[in-house]
Amino acid sequence: MQDIKVHANYIRIAPKKMRLVANVLKGMPFSHADAQLRNMTQKSVLPLRKALHSAGANAEHNYHLRIADLFVRNILIDPGPSLKRMRPRARGSGFPILKRTSHVTVILGIMRGKEDGTQSKDFVAQQEIKRTPQKTEVHLRKKFVQQAKSRASRIKQRATTRTGAKTRAFQRKAI
Question: How confident is the model at residue 138 (pLDDT cuts 50, 70, 90)?
């Protein structure tokens, strides 16, 4: 059985904001994903929920599947075309504004469970989707500190390699 795919194109929300909500839903059963979306307050929830319900309806109508047997295999958020606008700035200049759009693809899979109600190994393996690592604030801060340390060590190395009796890290005046 193929996966059930639904596309929603040209949604007027930035892809970065859509991915925040979409990453929460990956690997969830259909009913859990719908309940999660009902309780979220972001603007991107409405188009994602519409696409999810459309995929569920397609599965019921076209493939004669039960919604209870479906899970969210993947949600892809791709950038669409950007609307370009100009904001007036000082001295007659203009500053570009990009109003970004998104293309959403919802992919539903079928749970293959055992008769006793437990989940099979196939479903557990399908749930473990490779997610892109989230760049948290701590990760970015560590990266910034490492860059600052490497810059400082390069400056010190340059200062020690210069010839002369006195060397400084930052030479502002002639010695």
Answer: confident
Would you state the structure tokens that stand for residue 138, as one six-digit string? 């701590």
pLDDT the model gives residue 6: 95
Same domain, 41 and 100: yes
Write the burial class of residue 24 (CB in 10 Å: 0-12 exposed, 13-18 middle, 19+ buried). middle
Kindly tell me if the per-residue pLDDT of 66 is higher than 80.
yes
Of the pLDDT bands very low, low, confident and very high (cuts 50, 70, 90), residue 117 is very low
Tokens of 13: 């929300």
Identify the CATH number of the domain in which residue 24 sits: 3.90.470.10
Answer whether residue 100 is part of any domain: yes
One domain, residues 111 and 39: yes
Closest CA to 12 of 72, 96, 80, 60: 80
Per the domain annotation, does 97 fall within a domain?
A: yes
Q: Does residue 83 sit in the same domain as residue 154?
A: no
In this predicted structure, the answer to whether residue 130 has a pLDDT above a threshold of 60 is no
